[in-house]
Amino acid sequence: MATRLKETDVVVLGVGLVGAILARELTKAGLEVVGLERGEPRYTVPDFQGPAMHDELRYSIRKSLMMDTAKETYTFRNSADQTALPIRRLQSFLPGTGLGGSAVHWNGQTWRFHEADFRMRSLAAERYGKDFLGPDYTFQDWGVGYADLEPYYDRFEYLMGICGKAGNLQGKKVPGGNVLEEPRAREYPNPAQKEPFGSAMFRKAAEGLGYHPFPGPSANMSRPYTNPEGVSLGTCMFCGYCERYGCEHYAKSSPQTTVLPVLLKEARFKLRTHCQVQRINLDRSRRVATGVTYVDGKGAEYEQPAKLVIVGLFALNNVRMLLLSKLGEPYDPRSGKGVVGRNYTYQTTSGVNVFFDEKTNINPFMRSGSCGTTIADFVSDNFDHAKLGFLGGAYIGEVMSHGRPIEFHPTPPGTPAWGSQWKKAVIRHYNHTSVVNVHGSSIATRFNYLDLDPTYKDAWGQPLMRMTFDFPENDLKMSAFCTERATEIAKAMGAKQVAGGPRTRPYTVTQYQSTHNTGGTVMGADRSTSVVNRYCQSWDAPNVFVIGASNFPQNASYNPTDTVGALAYWAADAIVNKYLKSPGPLVT
Amino acid sequence: MKNIGSVLLLWVFAPVAVLAQPGPQCTACHGDQGQGSAQAPRIAGQPQAYLERQLAAYAEGARQHAVMSPIAKNLAPEARASAASHFAQIFPNAPSDSASGATANRKPPALVTRGDERKQVQACQNCHGPLGTGQADNPYLAGLSAQYFQSSLAEFKDGSRKTDASAQMPRIAAALSEADIKALAAYFASQPPPTRTRSPELQEAGREQRETAPGTATKERQGGDVTGTEPSGSQGPGGAGTK
Amino acid sequence: MSSQRPSSPQAPGPVNPARRLLFKAAGAASAAAALPLAADAQPRAPQQAYVFFNPAEAAFIEAAVARLIPKDEAGAGALEAGVANYIDKQLAGAWGAGERLYRSGPWREGSASQGYQLPFTPAELFRNAIRAINQKNANFPKLGAEEQDAFLDSLQKGKDDLGGVPASQFFESLLAVTIEGFFSDPAYGGNRDMVAWKMIGFPGAYSDFYDWVDRHGVAYNAPPASLAQDARGTIHVHVVQKGK
């Protein structure tokens, strides 16, 4: 029997990036906010300090900062004619847990999406014809455009202190920056990080081929920075323990280093950790949320009533929360009806190893999470797809972030997997290999979706979520094309040998690719194909807002975090300036 | 103080371009093994790159000191390098003002091993090595005199010392209180200095270009799955994060 | 692994004759200060006690890791580096017992893309497979190197059922923990004296390369550091001594 608590104005599910930003904005607006986080509290001091943090086995291999798959996981199958089985150990994607969420252990790549991403359906139809791809592809417009979100991208980037070089300032192209990006109102808050050796070789090769390389925008600080919240970050020291790790230097943007120090002093904010939310509760009409039910670290069950519910969990868990709460109609791929779980997408990644001679010291251990050099020439609709037969694209870049040897000991094709020859090859190539990454978009299809598993449950007795996904033909073509371009650049870097390949089917959960799981609570203008409206407000219960990468109708070429942060500020703005003044549906 | 007359004579008669004799003009204050004295800090065993950078800083004004600035300005870069190399390789047993063994096991202040969340300051040892005994070419702190330690942080704090390209030290110094600085100074002064180098330039063992087998494998044994063919293989996209 | 101790202190770069003269003139200090580097001697198979493996299992594991990453002219192999000890302690600990492993049934054989679906914890997987191997091929530790390699090859490609564990899956797990044990921090019992890191040039638990990252292509020669080393450079590993 759940203990009923005193009603709060707002309950925020998940105190990661979205939860921290929403809690900050809503407490500033005068509201009482309870933040529920399933994991533990953790802070730069003492939890992320060296030398203990520099432990590849513990953090990269045993995944200590990630969700505990002994208690909860997802089930997976490539297609609906298979039986989904539990992902018993995380490999392909690594959702975080604990205060700060995945934004504690991320690399820090911070990219704005293109207008062609936000209006993918309309603009692709204009440019290539409405039947360019077949009917199985369910990509669609977001209901918001780049111009709507530009001020919020700006706000988020200044919160984080993003380091980069603008390539388009209010329409004026600036060489050296990303001249293909959408216009931004002002320069980045901090200059780009130093360029490492491998990235410099990539840049020269890319320039030689006529592309437009630029420094990747980074949430690892290039210098000390104090953000508009008054929280200060230190300089990134290129320690090479970025993704999968917390930062000991206060140099990586995370909730801990940008907003929590202020939020946690706010009397109107109550943080509760080790609290596993079981469901959003709805009233009898099922059109109004009354709060949530959660189980705390001691196993006690509570009902937290609230006037407003913000769902700011990791993207996959946003979808699962709505399914468990029976909020919104679940998607059924056979009928095509329903929306929750529809348009699940991922990221289509590949790469090329670049093997240099023994005198070329790459020093991959001297890196940060998102330093490096990239080209956007094959991103989104930056190139003409008319004769290519696919939509979408990839960024291509030398963005190596580490040289940790359990994860990285490249050898050329033909090298045995063990034994003396393997060992010699590892010694020969470890410090003389660069990697060119291909980070590609993921288009939505009617076959890839999320729903509740009929068999497997979590430690609380609730059904796991089932993921049905494989790479669609469109993305395989995109990957083949972009990987060829990457290989050409790699060959021009002066190496002795390059070796790589495009993404192929089937998608496997056994190999790390990306933690950019997107979609499932899609935002849009049409409620028959979206779960939330353009303000991230649930069509079904107006006092529920769902914010995160789960709102993406399809995934773009770039990493999602900048857009997630922009949506957080965009939704917060709508709540404070529209919803609170007149609670109810913001779009009719 | 050694024979300052002969030192001055050497300064006068030795052309600047030629390597001046660094011995007496360094050892007069820093001790004959660089172990430090009341006038000058311990420099023995500090990383060569670090010592060289300090001499360059004194010569160029990024660091200022009534005695060091003119000395450094009169040293050609080669002479600075050789002086730095010389002292980087000396590890005398104890600094002139080190404390007795009884205090060597003293518990370090939390700032050394943990940092301070409220002040947003990381642990000193992250960059300065275990208990401040040095890391690569970051200087060791253990065994430095309390007075020197305090004055260094004061110079970072007031901006007169601009030797840290990463700008970490000014930020950290600004966040520390006088009490913090005093406690750290006292702790480090009580500790024995390191007895071995960790400086990159001075490591030669095992690091010269290896005469290993050439990179391409023979056909001797093709053991099934091959690592490295697929950059997005089981290690992830070979060293590159995609988050 | 080449491990030349320098015969006299040398500054890097071309030696300036005037500088050499300078050192001599400066006096005894330079000659007396031989670089006090730790001797990079070849590590032996370290003294240890096993807390998980029984003697027959330990014999198999030692022989297997010695072939997976052999000692050769490039330097120490997995055995000398303490990888058998690493695996023992891992299987005896939380990971071996199923930390972060979703352990609810039903258990079904899935497709390759669905990943691990056996009901075994790592400890159970190793125990079952090695028991089956020792029943069929108990003299593996006594075979010659080529025969051992052939046997490991057959495991790698094999479909045999080893106490419920498919041979190739056991091999994959064994190779994975061997590589982990070779390259992980010595705090965990493998990579003894950071021998594997020295071999490839990985610095270990450093946290600052700010001044180095734009020195493109520099030969970075710092000695590696373990997260478990104290102020005097001693690495503290939990090693169980026999008889204590």
Mean pLDDT score of chain A? 98
Overall, the morphology of chain C is globular
Q: Give me the CATH architecture of chain A, please.
A: 3-Layer(bba) Sandwich
Low-confidence stretches of chain A: none
Order of helices and strands of chain C: HHHHHHEEHH
Instruction: Write the CATH fold name of chain A.
Output: FAD/NAD(P)-binding domain
Strand content of chain C: under 5%
Helix percentage range of chain A = 10-25%
The radius of gyration of chain C is 23 Å
In short:
Chain B is 40% helix and 2% strand. By secondary structure, chain B is mostly helical.
Explain how this protein is built.
- The complex is a heterotrimer of chains A (588), B (243) and C (244).
- The radius of gyration of chain A is 23 Å and the shape is globular.
- Chain A is α/β, with parallel strands linked by helices and 588 residues long.
- Chain A has helices at residues 17-28, 44-47, 56-61, 102-105, 115-118, 120-128, 146-160, 197-208, 255-258, 260-263, 315-325, 420-429, 473-491, 561-579, and strands at 3-4, 8-13, 33-36, 74-77, 85-86, 168-169, 172-173, 214-215, 225-226, 232-233, 269-272, 276-282, 289-295, 301-311, 342-345, 348-355, 373-375, 394-398, 433-440, 449-457, 463-468, 497-501, 518-520, 544-546.
- The two termini of chain A are 38 Å apart.
- Chain A has one domain (3-579): FAD/NAD(P)-binding domain, CATH 3.50.50.
- Chain B has helices at residues 4-13, 22-30, 48-60, 68-73, 77-88, 101-104, 110-113, 124-128, 146-158, 168-175, 178-190, and strands at 232-233, 236-237.
- Chain B is globular.
- Chain C has a domain at 55-197.
- Chain C has a two-stranded antiparallel sheet with strand order 1-2.
- The radius of gyration of chain C is 23 Å and the shape is globular.
